[in-house]
Amino acid sequence: MRYSFMSFSLPEADLTEFVGAAQRYGYDGVEPRVGGGHRHGIELDTSPAQRREIRSFAADHGVAVACVSAGCRFADPGPAAEQIPVARRVIELAADLDSHRVRVFGGQFPDDVSRETAHASIVGALRELAPFAADHGVTVVMETHDAWTVPAHVAAIMSEVDHPAIGVNWDVMHPPRTGGCPTLQEAHTTLRPWIKHVHMHDATSRSDILDFKPMGEGEFDHRIVLSLLAADGYDGYLSGEWIDWEPGEIHLPREIAAIRGYERELHLTQ
């Protein structure tokens, strides 16, 4: 398995510190959040020359840009039209950094928009983005998040879009927490044809607040996640998403040690 972490863990880190932490703690990649006010310097207005420098710097340190994480949302038909060109720019940024994943959201939708209309809006946006993403060697992955944590809802979108450049970012925690999906296995079974990126974190199962816990002290058994993905031959990244939690210097080394321990326990290492 390959592991990365999102820039939420080190929001004040510049690029050198961000990539250096991944190298120091044993992560294979980093996942920058664009537009989030983080200091890594990977943004839509990053110049072509800066993009080349970032790509070379990461490669020279053996750290991949595993995914470029954006906040684009498509469920509300009005704002969705404005988000499509933004998503295209994120795709271009990812391609320039030799990253092959862009994370987007389905998003919440207002009370006067039905789920059917929101579904159609997301499908339309992803269909429009799909050929552009494919031309850039990028897969756009929609996260199981916000109004789209029910695996069947996400699977219905994927089935209708039906394009290899569109996939799922399986956030392992949200379907059980807020999507009414009782087990990790059930979520995986529903989403498995489209899983191209994974967000990992342990927490309590409270739906009203994100109550992070160290790996193994929460209610989401990542041994199950690793076993399911390994059985599928999954070759993407599992990316740690820890927002407004402990300092990264505390949780980043501890969490990668825990997940590597699970790999050994499951005999997934060679």
Can you walk through the features of this model?
By secondary structure, this protein is α/β, with parallel strands linked by helices. It has a single domain, classed as TIM Barrel, CATH 3.20.20. The chain has 9 helices and 11 strands. It has helices at residues 15-25, 48-60, 77-96, 115-135, 151-161, 174-178, 184-191, 222-232, 248-265; strands spanning 2-6, 29-31, 64-65, 68-73, 101-105, 139-143, 166-171, 195-200, 202-203, 212-213, 237-240. The strands form 2 sheets. Strands 3-2-1-11-8-7-6-5-4 form a 9-stranded parallel beta sheet. A two-stranded antiparallel ribbon has the order 9-10. Strand 1, helix 1 and strand 2 (29-31) form a beta-alpha-beta unit. Helix 4 (115-135) packs across helix 5. The N and C termini lie close together (11 Å).
Explain the layout of strands and helices.
Blueprint: E1 2-6, H1 15-25, E2 29-31, H2 48-60, E3 64-65, E4 68-73, H3 77-96, E5 101-105, H4 115-135, E6 139-143, H5 151-161, E7 166-171, H6 174-178, H7 184-191, E8 195-200, E9 202-203, E10 212-213, H8 222-232, E11 237-240, H9 248-265
Parallel strand pairs: 1-2, 1-11, 2-3, 4-5, 5-6, 6-7, 7-8, 8-11
Antiparallel strand pairs: 9-10
Helix pairs in contact: 3-4, 4-5, 5-7
Summarize the structure.
This protein is α/β, with parallel strands linked by helices and 270 residues long. The protein has helices at residues 15-25, 48-60, 77-96, 115-135, 151-161, 174-178, 184-191, 222-232, 248-265, and strands at 2-6, 29-31, 64-65, 68-73, 101-105, 139-143, 166-171, 195-200, 202-203, 212-213, 237-240.
